[in-house]
Amino acid sequence: VGTLSGESREVNIAGSSTVFPVTSVVASEFREERDDVTISISRTGTGGGFSNFFCPGMTDINNASREIADVEVEQCGGNDITPIEFTVATDALTVVVNPEADWIDCVTVEELSQIWQADGAERWSEVRDEWPDEEIQRFGADTTSGTFDYFDEAILGEDGTHTTDYHATERDRTIVQGVQGNEFAIGYFGFAYYDENPDEIKALGIDDGNGCVKPSLETAKKGEYTPLSRSLYIYVAQESLERSAVRDFVEFYLEQTSTDLVNEVGYVPMTEDERDENLAELDDAIEEVTAE
Amino acid sequence: MSSDTEQSQPDLTDASEPAFGRVSRTKDVAFRWLTFAAALLGIVALAALLANVLVDALAVTDPEYGSWLDWQFLTSPPSFSDPFAAGFFPAIVGSIALMIVIAVITFPLGVGAAIYLEEYANDGYLTRFIQLNIANLAGVPSVVYGLLGLGLFVSLLNLGFGTLLVAGFTISLLILPIVIISAQEAIRSVPDSQRQASYGMGATKWQTIRNVVLPRSMPGILTGTILALGRAIGETAPLIMIGAPTAVFGTPNSLFSKITAMPMQIFTWADRPEMEFQYGVVAAGAVTLLVVLLTINSIAILIRNRYQQRT
Amino acid sequence: MSAPDLTGDGARTTRGAAFKALFALCAALSILTTIAIVATLLYDAVDFFAAVSPLEFFTGTEWTPANEVYGVWPLISGTLIITFGSAVIALPIGLLTAIYLSEYASERRRAFLKPALEVLAGVPTVVYGYFALVYVTPALDAIVPIGTFNALSASIMVGIMIIPMVSSISEDAMSAVPDSLRRASYGLGATKFTVSTSVVVPAALSGILSSYILALSRAIGETMIVAIAAGQTPRLIDLTDPAGMFLGSIQTMTAAMVQIGASDVIGQSTEYKSLFAVGLTLFVITFAMNLFSEWVASRYREVYR
Amino acid sequence: MTQDAMTSPEAEQTDEQRTGTGPTPGTDGLADRTAESEAETVVDRTIIEARDLDVYYGDDQALQGIDMEIPEKQVTALIGPSGCGKSTFLRSINRMNDLIDIARVEGDLYFRGKNVYDEDVDPVALRRKIGMVFQSPNPFPKSIRENVAYGLKVQGKDENVDEKVRTALERAALLDEVEDQLDESGLDLSGGQQQRLCIARAIAPDPEVILMDEPASALDPVATSKIEDLIEDLSEEYTVVIVTHNMQQAARISDKTAVFLTGGELVEFDDTNKIFENPENDRVEDYITGKFG
Amino acid sequence: MTQDAMTSPEAEQTDEQRTGTGPTPGTDGLADRTAESEAETVVDRTIIEARDLDVYYGDDQALQGIDMEIPEKQVTALIGPSGCGKSTFLRSINRMNDLIDIARVEGDLYFRGKNVYDEDVDPVALRRKIGMVFQSPNPFPKSIRENVAYGLKVQGKDENVDEKVRTALERAALLDEVEDQLDESGLDLSGGQQQRLCIARAIAPDPEVILMDEPASALDPVATSKIEDLIEDLSEEYTVVIVTHNMQQAARISDKTAVFLTGGELVEFDDTNKIFENPENDRVEDYITGKFG
Ligand SMILES: Nc1ncnc2c1ncn2[C@@H]1O[C@H](COP(=O)(O)OP(=O)(O)OP(=O)(O)O)[C@@H](O)[C@H]1O
Ligand SMILES: Nc1ncnc2c1ncn2[C@@H]1O[C@H](COP(=O)(O)OP(=O)(O)OP(=O)(O)O)[C@@H](O)[C@H]1O
Ligand SMILES: [Mg+2]
Ligand SMILES: [Mg+2]
Ligand SMILES: O=P([O-])([O-])[O-]
């Protein structure tokens, strides 16, 4: 397939739904300059993207909301794919509830883990006595997503397992709608999805032992929003950099990571230094493949 | 009867004699209204929904936005962050490309199969088996065809996920039974006297099919095929299963290009968080899709009507 | 008298045979398609059943792929709820519509109503799904508190979508009832209501039944409406809480397939393979129903043709 | 409706001279038969009377100014070549023509002195008094019992249904043959049995008149003769009006015969013997001797 | 095929005695006519010959052991009551029965001495020699010109098509009427014109025999008489075999008449005048005088 003429002017991307908005904005901007390149983006979740598309060699770039896992590196290696990591933004993973739930504004990490633990709390009152005696309706990321993995690790840690009694979806809009529709619902996803709908859902502050911190671009940037702020990445297959379309796109992408574009999507942009570091790294990688 | 004897005197003098009685029509009238209401219910519900989506797409209630469905929408690439910049262009192009591929595949295959079943096959077990099988295939859920595409074209034949070719093959298989059945109906409607006339002139079977049967049934075949294509451009589930991408920027430039299509694009937009996507962009996409569909169906009906006038 | 030359022209015969073979091939493709469907589904389903025992799959009451628990009943439950809900809407309305079209409607009304009903069947299901989510659910919410994703609005939409299927096949069956039966009934002093309900409907019963089965099969296989509007929560039917069943989120077999398909397409995981096991189950159910409906329908065709 | 036809029927009765109702010279068997039973029934009392009846299908006129008086409790046969309007006339008696969209009736048709085309007449009620049997047997796809009970059910005559069903089958000379299979489908009977079933179905609700449109034309000779016997019996209790294209049949079973000719005219109406032995009209004579038709 | 029937036709011709082929006593007009032209044509040369021909539809036998010799360049009429197998026989001549799945032919049918049911006979080639005209006119929905040219086209007779089309229309006595509208649809013609168009279509590729199955039954009297005149003319150049249910027509136009009776038997076959004036068989007499059928 790769040898077909049309392919060389295409850039195929899969992976994280959290990073998807950033990549799609960049792709749209890129097309303004290069309308001969066709870019396709599949939103499959970080893990799905790595194991099903990127490592089998079917995509050039994988969006990721967590770092690549060891098994995935192995899988890629087996197919002679060399992933190169670039950080493109910082996200504040946001826990949200229904705006009418005026009895809740802030949760502790401990309480969160009770809520999302397998065999954890079933009703709100089990978590905190003054909360209503109502069943908890959970909406969260699907297991193939990086958001799931990150949340699982940051909140539940090594020992805990994420509950399966929740509405699992790759489609964050579904979580917004679900939480919006039920006073006793709770959900989590990337900050961008909250940022767009601040009136329909309410973001909870997280107390990681240092008092309540609300998620925002500022608190994430300053590193105050713990433990749920995280980096967002793209992984580029070094082999794909042989093609100019991919090269140009990645270069354009990295240049944009320090601009307002990322801000507008709802994430924290990179600093200019970080951006330049990334670009340098890209140049090295390109040199390596084109030199051969 | 005997009790009637007095009454039954032919009383021809009194024209105002009571009639033979009346049978209550309450049930009759009520039932008539009930059935009429039922017949309208689905249509009215759909009309209400269509009115809603049209109002949203044209932003009738929020004129400050300006209509969502405008030239910019039809010609721009999609956006997943700025509803005001979002466009439908790659999806429209993808749908058209897909339709062409599907038409090229299903038309000859469907007509060929219909010709075989109507003109060649005798009424044996095999024919009836094929016929039954086609009827059944027409009822297989589209998501299962999606799995077929995924297992056969993507995994086994390795034609690439979400490509134009795979999508075309998959949906072609899905609508092929419909094309065959409607082509069969069209061919069956050619009067036998026409075939007899041709055979009587010493025409071979193929000459008869080519010169008599096909010209006469072509409008019907076209109508059926176009209606089936209408069904094809609305299909979403098979595209999801074969891994059609969430977003495409640009137009397909080969059969192996990844494509999106109108319903797929609607599906991926529908989960954008912003309300403007929900009630604006998606509505505009839905209206565009419905307009295209309506146009296609109108063309089919036009062909059918012209054909009906001629015979 | 010289015998005329009546022997065939070789090229002509060969050409004829070639065309026949070509067309036969096209017809054979339909059988190949069926074989391909069964083979593809089986190929991965067999792998799946090597990892998950069929017993567990077909009797299990919990569906959580994340934990490697694959009991298909919650999905079947979801499908049943939607099928039931849409049947409650479509079967009576479709039948009444068919009666109206076949017994009451004037030619002009028919000429308007039939194509209008065809439009109902032709609206893409993704649009119906969207309608259910953004218009029907909020409207229902104004009456009863209802979840954003719920079986009720999806059922309503699926029901509306399959009305034309019921009405058009049932109407065909009613039109096939010979007029002589209607005349016999009118001749005995029956009203139109009586003729419709005591003669036409019973005589067309197998056709009506066939339309019902086909429509239910369609509801079972419907994907986009439920994937968009009914949610992704696999739940076992709870007969003690019928309202909750409809007001809350569920997951059908088809929706589960879309969920897996949209996230984890090419993988070799058990979850990916479960897609094919569910697909196979769905295929077998709908195929059996379609066959059954054909069989029922062939019975009424026999009686009146 | 023409103004003429609006005048009351009696007035016309004396004003107008009508074909075939004048005194008949030849004495005939039928007259004898009715004479014998004179003590009980009024001879030749008119039950149905057509006055200047026209029927149109769209722009085509199928019946032209028909005047006819059908006597009670006798068998009246309508004969004539195909397409002359016999069925149309029959259907205009119980307003079955109402069911044909393009059919239009002008003129009057009296049933027991009441114009059935008056505004206040409910055709459904009318049909309950005037039963009908059709050309080819058309039993419902239901059991024999349900077939016969159908009219009773529809007409709300719900008491003693089982008894009435048996009586009707008995009168239709079918009971013996089907006694053991009342709950089996009416469609499983032979053609002749089916037609007798339809007759049983028509008489079960006890109508006053039975209209029959070529009831035996789809049957074999044996079944036909059974039906013919049955019709003769029925005329003891019912008025029977029968359309037939079989002249021998008309001659055999009817008391009165009406001859329609192409164009929808009633050319002659008289005692059956008179018609077959000594018709007044030459065209009728030609038709009866088989010169055309 | 029976062994008997495998013997060559000429051998049989002397062996076998056949109905109606014996010398006829009465002299008839037809014999006169053929005698007149004796100088140019050989009288009564057989072109089609059936030998013990049986045709079955599934298990039903439609023709029983037909033996018949049809003379060249004459009009042979097939008459008989409905369902007696006339059309079936006609179709078995040019193997149109092949198109009916359940039809099966046993016995022999010779065309110019060649058994058309031999393995090596291509029915398509056969039909190019034996044209056919059907009961109701069935022109193609194409222009008049294309209709007539159709046979030429499918038979690959591509030269001088326009001229041949005109000649055929001329012979079918239609040219004058349609000369100005050759490119208009054949469907726009009147019924009688359509049937003549079908005849023109059949003769355009110049077959040797023309089979006609009740070609005038759907036409009015004026059109019918035109077709009848045409058939008489055609017999100067073609062998015409015509099925008709109209005995007057058979008497008017044919030289030979074959009478089939119910059950698929050929009861009598002889010169037309003989059949109508003095049939040998009583059933034929009954049929011809209208006692049944
Ligand atoms: N439903 C109808 N619509 C239009 N024309 C009709 C209809 N029924 C009958 N006609 C026409 O009315 C005329 C009389 O028909 P009718 O059926 O009364 O004749 P008939 O004497 O019963 O003939 P037959 O012996 O063939 O039954 C015919 O010319 C017929 O074509
Ligand atoms: N295609 C067919 N399939 C089955 N039976 C047939 C078929 N065609 C004719 N028959 C039967 O064969 C017998 C002879 O039919 P055929 O058409 O040859 O009669 P016919 O003399 O031409 O009658 P008509 O004057 O009505 O045209 C009939 O009993 C008919 O029912
Ligand atoms: Mg009649
Ligand atoms: Mg015939
Ligand atoms: O889609 P994810 O960012 O959760 O992998």
From TrEMBL, chain B:
Biological-process GO terms, alphabetical: phosphate ion transmembrane transport
Signal sequence extent: none
Chief localization: membrane
Subcellular location: Cell membrane
Transmembrane segments: 33-55, 84-117, 129-153, 159-181, 277-303
Domain ABC transmembrane type-1: 92-300
Keywords: Cell membrane, Membrane, Transmembrane, Transmembrane helix, Transport
NCBIfam families linked to this entry: 3a0107s02c (TIGR00974)
Name of the protein this chain belongs to: Phosphate transport system permease protein PstA
Organism: Natrinema salifodinae
From TrEMBL, chain C:
InterPro entries registered for this protein in UniProt: MetI-like, MetI-like_sf, Phosphate_PstC
Keywords attached to this entry: Cell membrane, Membrane, Phosphate transport, Transmembrane, Transmembrane helix, Transport
Topology within the bilayer: Multi-pass membrane protein
GO molecular function, a single term: phosphate transmembrane transporter activity
Pfam families reported for this sequence: BPD_transp_1
Coiled-coil annotated residue ranges, if any: none
Keyword check for Transmembrane helix: yes
CDD domains: TM_PBP2 (cd06261)
Cellular localization per UniProt: Cell membrane; Membrane
Entry's transmembrane regions: 21-43, 72-100, 112-136, 142-163, 184-205, 274-297
One GO cellular component, as annotated: plasma membrane
Sequence ranges assigned to domain ABC transmembrane type-1 in this UniProt record: 76-293
Keyword Transmembrane helix: yes
GO biological process terms on file: phosphate ion transport
Domain of life: Archaea
Cross-referenced PANTHER family: PHOSPHATE TRANSPORT SYSTEM PERMEASE, PHOSPHATE TRANSPORT SYSTEM PERMEASE PROTEIN
Record-stated family: Belongs to the binding-protein-dependent transport system permease family. CysTW subfamily.
Record's function text: Part of the binding-protein-dependent transport system for phosphate; probably responsible for the translocation of the substrate across the membrane.
Record's protein name: Phosphate transport system permease protein
Automatic annotation (TrEMBL), chains D, E:
Matching NCBIfam families: 3a0107s01c2
Family matches, as CDD domains: ABC_PstB_phosphate_transporter (cd03260)
Compositional bias (Low complexity): 19-29
Stretch forming the signal peptide: none
Organism: Natrinema salifodinae
MF GO annotations: ATP binding; ATP hydrolysis activity; phosphate transmembrane transporter activity
InterPro entries (UniProt xref): AAA+_ATPase, ABC_transporter-like_ATP-bd, ABC_transporter-like_CS, P-loop_NTPase, PstB-like
Biased composition (Basic and acidic residues): 30-40
Official protein name in the record: Phosphate ABC transporter ATP-binding protein, PhoT family
Gene Ontology BP annotations: phosphate ion transmembrane transport
SUPFAM superfamilies to which the protein is assigned, alphabetical: P-loop containing nucleoside triphosphate hydrolases
Domain ABC transporter, residue spans: 48-288
GO cellular component annotations of the record: membrane
Chain intervals for the UniProt region annotation (Disordered): 1-40
Pfam families named among the record's database cross-references: ABC_tran
Keywords attached to this entry: ATP-binding, Cell membrane, Membrane, Nucleotide-binding, Transport
Keyword Ubl conjugation: no
